[in-house]
Task: structure prediction
Amino acid sequence: MRIVMLGAPGSGKGTQAKRLEAERGWLQISTGDLLRQAVADRTELGLRAKAAMDAGELVSDDIVLGMIKERLTKPDAGRGFVLDGYPRNAKQAEDLDHVLGELGLKLDAAVLMDVDFDILMKRLTGRRTCSKTGKVLNIYFSPKEEIDECLQAGGELLRRDDDNEETIRNRLEVYKRQTAPLVDHYAARGLLRRVDAEGTVDEVHGRLLAALGL
Ligand code: AMP
Result:
């Protein structure tokens, strides 16, 4: 399937997209992950993107479009894909329609991960990534065994640079102003699937599969 994941930062898009990739083989394409990699590698693109990311603002549409085009034209994208964090504004949604049109591809669904604002704050301030396994964990919500598993493997619980309170507030604002209107864009095309994204990862995953008719 070809899916767009919509939802605020912390709504669980990445967690569920990774799970769909592991279970179904559909490629998870996360512009946030690609940008963080570019920053870590100190590429020119990473240097250009860093200030916006640190402030919780959107990186320029051209930069992310270039990344998406490059990823979607690789052969493994033919297996299906889950776009995680793209598009994030009206221009990007138009760009995506254009790129998919050129490739002769159609989206099957746009999933809205629906989560209450207070829970988002806790998910974002508590979010950590295991340095050993890359697994995304949460100091408030993850089972103790999962956290211990990372620590016992010699991993550290790393916090993303932009998961601090000030940047989080701005990212949520940017979401409300620029990304939330895309819900209408996809609803108008009959592609929107709403998922109640509160609860455990397994519960949400079950609802997501049901919403996709799987
Ligand atoms: P994420 O990991 O999806 O929360 O993205 C982290 C940060 O990367 C965002 O706050 C933006 O600064 C940047 N970013 C990720 N995806 C996009 C996008 N589609 N358009 C612009 N900026 C993006």
Notes: The domain at 2-26+80-115+173-211 is CATH 3.40.50.300 (Rossmann fold).
